[in-house]
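Appendix B. One record, verbatim.
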Amino acid sequence: MTPESPITPLGPALAEALPRLYRIRTDPLLTELIGALSTALVRGELHLPFDGPAPEGIVSVEQWPEGHRQALVRCGWIQIPEQPGLPDDESPPPLMLGDRGVGWRRWLLLLEATMAELERRATASVQPPLSPACLQTAAQRARRRGRLDPRQQAAVAALLSQGLVLLGGGPGTGKTSTIVQMLAAVLEERPGWRLHLAAPTGKAAARLRQAIAAGAGTLPPPLAAQLSASPCTTLHRLLESRGEGFGRNREHPLALDLLVVDEVSMLDLPLMAALLEAMPAQAQLVLVGDPDQLAPVGPGAVLQELQAPARRQAMGDSAIELITTYRNDGALAVAAGRLRRGDVPGFLQDLNRLSSSDNLSWWRCAAGRLPAGVLERLRAHQVQLARLAASWSEDPEAVTRELLEELERCVALAPTRRGRWGVEALNQRLLGADWSRGPAGWPAGTPVLCQRNLPELGLANGDVGVVVVREGQRQLLFWGSQEPGVAGKEGTSASAPAIRLVHPSRMAGADAAFAITIHKSQGSQYQQVLVLVPEGEGRWDRRLLYTALTRARRQAVLITPEGQGWLPA
């Protein structure tokens, strides 16, 4: 099972418009293919592989793929990448045929241009270059100070010499401690280097800020202070998002020497392309992420594309995967590791062997109603939030910290918004008649999820706040990723989270966040996570389950319908 796709008229509209624009006859097989490509694009996939099973949207399964390939040949729509250019007065065909299948020409060209730029940066030398002796001394100093393993030490050496470093790894493999030592080594060798930290969402940027500040405790005080003062914002804020475009671009590049981007699994192709366009030619880029997490909602999974063997080879020594787990997360870590490796039989065997002392539980429930245990835990969380929010005005500073801790104590995750086990049903059960009133009518203590980038408020899509009462009026207390109205290079430092009050009227479209979708949870972590697996057709995407379970710091509960029709693929 995959997360619900938005209902879109894109496929039917293109199937009607493209033949008319190119003055070709309508072909049922061509219509199917356009629909399938459109559906794939909504899922973030840029092409359809001809060597696999018939994808969603293909009705004439018996003719897949050869019949559909011939339909493309008949209409002249296939462009092979090597074929000569077209005359100036002819429009290029909308599709391209490559080694991995057929896809939209525009997106595949953008993908190749983006990959080429990443590879160029990965093989470029940092100027001025450090001597081999200096490189070795700096890497060894970082190893001793951070107790780094050989792969972590290689990441430090790569950043001291190369223009781009791709750092991957699962939970607990030391990505943050490695980044701290990488940046410290750069600051020691290049004291004037301008650093910036960024992430796709406000929540992820806040977590990155906190993690870097905490990890800097292993450094000498002057170095720790310099690193903790590095600006940390969302990517949209850094690029100065302006609705349809960005203020930062090739003509107005970013004013920095080194950029670290966390949670790269969430970056889609257009955002990565915009980031590369705004990067100064000689600036360094560190991309950090877990390649086994969910692909982004938008088109083009950049981090997953970079895992292809040919791409990894082209990146050379700049692509480093951390594999040693330093944090013992018990049964939860074992289950995540099974999913990461695609070991579904082992994952299921481990579920059946869980004991009451494990930090992972498995509840099997009837699919017809919401499990009572889930509602009980969420209601206890709701009561605690309401208690703290009611006392917020008495001691805002102290209670704000407690509210943040309680917000991150518990959450329910589901793949879909709708349905009996969907996010909306859970939030509605907890809020009752108040659910439809929106933030202006929600009781104090209700978590609120920002659903849009609101730079004028200093908020980003994915930021989570809570309803409080101030002087008899409801306000939304948020921990944003940057101050409102501040340009990316002047964003808040890594040690200073932005806290602000927002009037509910300025938060149209916000959602209650006792329960959120798994996609929206990316970049966040909670003490306890309740993962609901609704009954549905097909098999669950193991990346979806892996992403949900790894949001938990201490405990996760997997809730599935009776039977095993939900198995991960």
